[in-house]
Write a sequence for this structure.
């Protein structure tokens, strides 16, 4: 077994045993193969639906490296990232992600990852999304143009 | 202008003025129209790529209500949620979301929201996603089955 995936998987097991959240773990290494962030799902423990394993690992890596930019890093996660975590990986500028279980495996134990992928692809209607007041919001957005991160 | 969207938009402006991150704000109300969470993008301020306005608002609402489950709540956000935030809204069990600007508007000022949507739909290759060690990871996942959150 890949040594980093093994650690991610051990994090998943730890999360189950401690009843911190779902069975998911992740680890991030930098370009020198040094571990910079590690995490497991802590949704129940922290009462925070955003604290999936990958998000926790990204937060920890950002603290370790003192930056929001994880360019050059690689993430290993015990399950295929949900769209939230996949997007977080992209926003963190991580370019390579390895995963163990699939979103179908996650669906088999009751998680909605696959449904969310289908919603984003327009194949179901999980929530209502409505637009309003674009003009006023665009006025504020335009004040920002040119600045990037 | 809708009174909640007005507050979300004011949060976006505050974020620009304080150089905390991108021009995005959000607010969450409960089923009695009481404000339970508010937020703006704090990616730069907190050096955390996951702290988009909607995520900050969700975290604050979860603290206010002391739960990871925001069923019955509604979110207003000054820009169409990126896939990370849209998924976080779903994981939080929020069923209705109002947004001001569009993902195309965000692209016009340099943000990659729309690219990430296209990646998830299989229309580009922003990062490398590879599977490994499914069998060992599935062994851990199976220990969890039946527990839900």
């Amino acid at each position: 077994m890949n040594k980093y995936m093994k650690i991610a998987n051990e994090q998943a097991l730890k999360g189950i045993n401690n009843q911190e959240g779902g069975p998911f773990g992740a680890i991030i290494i930098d370009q020198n193969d040094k571990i910079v962030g590690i995490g497991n799902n802590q949704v129940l423990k922290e009462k925070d639906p955003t604290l999936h394993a990958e998000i926790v690992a990204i937060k920890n890596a950002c603290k370790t490296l003192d930056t929001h930019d994880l360019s050059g890093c690689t993430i290993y996660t015990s399950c295929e990232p949900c769209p939230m975590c996949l997007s977080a990986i992209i926003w963190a500028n991580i370019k390579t992600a390895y995963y163990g279980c699939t979103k179908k495996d996650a669906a088999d134990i009751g998680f909605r990852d696959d449904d969310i992928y289908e919603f984003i692809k327009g194949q179901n209607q999980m929530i209502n999304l409505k637009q309003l007041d674009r003009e006023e919001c665009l006025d504020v957005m335009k004040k920002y143009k040119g600045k990037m991160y």
Q: What stands out?
A: Chain B has a mean pLDDT of 95. Chain B touches chain A through 85 residues (CB under 8 Å). The longest helix of chain B spans residues 3-17. The helical segments of chain B are 3-17, 43-46, 53-65, 83-91, 103-108, 113-120, 134-144.
